Amino acid sequence: MPVYPTHTMKAFDDELDRLNQTLGRMGGLAETQLGTAVQAMLTRDEALAAQVISGDDQVDGAEDHINEQVVRLLALRQPVADDLRLVMSALRVASALERIADHATSTAHRVAVLNQAPMVPAVKSVARLGWLVRDLLKEALDAFMSRDADRALKVWERDEEVDDLYSSLFRELLTYMMEDPRHIAPCTHLQFIAKNLERVGDHATNLAEATWFVVHGTPLSANRPKKDMSSYTMAEPRHLSPQDQSPE
Amino acid sequence: MPVYPTHTMKAFDDELDRLNQTLGRMGGLAETQLGTAVQAMLTRDEALAAQVISGDDQVDGAEDHINEQVVRLLALRQPVADDLRLVMSALRVASALERIADHATSTAHRVAVLNQAPMVPAVKSVARLGWLVRDLLKEALDAFMSRDADRALKVWERDEEVDDLYSSLFRELLTYMMEDPRHIAPCTHLQFIAKNLERVGDHATNLAEATWFVVHGTPLSANRPKKDMSSYTMAEPRHLSPQDQSPE
């Protein structure tokens, strides 16, 4: 690692601090967008959903800002080793947060549509998945901001919970659709929302991996638990027992 | 713009060439993954789908390789202005290609599931969307590799076609689901595949925007046509006229 004069190190540290602050703000934004979108869906609140949709630009702006800071840091400070790892992880975190906010916006877009049909009870189960991934996102962000690899590992291990809940939700929604053709359209939108939320869980996992890599310098993903693939299965009416047909 | 000694410019140009070659290879990979996934869905060919799934690592590896090349270029050559724009666009293009390949893999994962049920005719309409976005991706890649902004603009304008086709497909799939409960599970998977393909169209649009930005130095997105939001609408059985109920 090169030896910098003291004032250069100070300037570098200041820029890293600023980058961290932007990341923290962007994380808070993404978390709020997600929570607000789930709340809007659950309470059928279109004004709240509109707030999420119009807030997406702010998240995109934060990502652009982080990318600019990173380019400046790379070009002017030429960080190596640990510092380079830290700077590059900022890009990865910003990209994950932008995609999380996209999923929140996509969820918000469907609120007005869902309101055109009577409420299906399954919306509560979808919200449950929403709260789970919001909690995981919050934990993942806190772990990243405090460079706490063990806390990140715990988030990473909990992605299985998300996959399990998503899989049972996928099946639950299919049973509602099979019960009554009037449920098909709203439940199709709920299927998309559930998929969005499951993806948020994946991105929280990515944040955890970035934290681990920043702290330890080795990838966490090598020993990732196998993903549950049961939502990639077919559930036909004849395969469903009577109690499966009215879950919730 | 700084004046480099000749040998430095030569080294920079060589590295840019290498970066471009990696991008070209990655683009070819993503295009193949997409085409193969659609073909596997249409012909119910699980071996072909497995090929797509196992090929995803290669695409991820290509993105990592591009990211490393970009970091090295930024740190060692400190490009400014046009050169910096070109180097940063590589990150954007690589990220779009990685996400396109992800959508192809996600499509491939559903082939084995779709094969558990009899074929629904709507699969042909989904494949039509697949061929459209594959053609747009090919055009977008050619435009980027040849730095042809006008060609990129044409791709960008055609994203509306994708949105229109996706919206009618969304409704078509709903009608199949309403016709027969046995269609619900396979058509839910087809809804996800259609959404994946529509997203590929968005990423092809991103490639076109990156090309425009590299050539002109100004963003193209300012005057983007309004997105069709009709797939965010509710289609209830009572809203469908008889001919709508059996499209295809």
TrEMBL record, chains A, B:
Compartment annotation: Cytoplasm
Entries under Pfam families matching the protein: PhoU
Keyword Kinase: no
A single Gene Ontology CC term: cytoplasm
Primary location class: cytoplasm
Residue ranges annotated for the PhoU domain, each copy included: 24-111, 127-210
Keywords from the UniProt entry: Cytoplasm, Phosphate transport, Transport
Region (Disordered) residue spans: 223-248
Transmembrane helix recorded as keyword: no
Signal peptide: none
Function text: Plays a role in the regulation of phosphate uptake.
Subunit note: Homodimer.
Family per record: Belongs to the PhoU family.
Protein name: Phosphate-specific transport system accessory protein PhoU
Species of origin: Insolitispirillum peregrinum
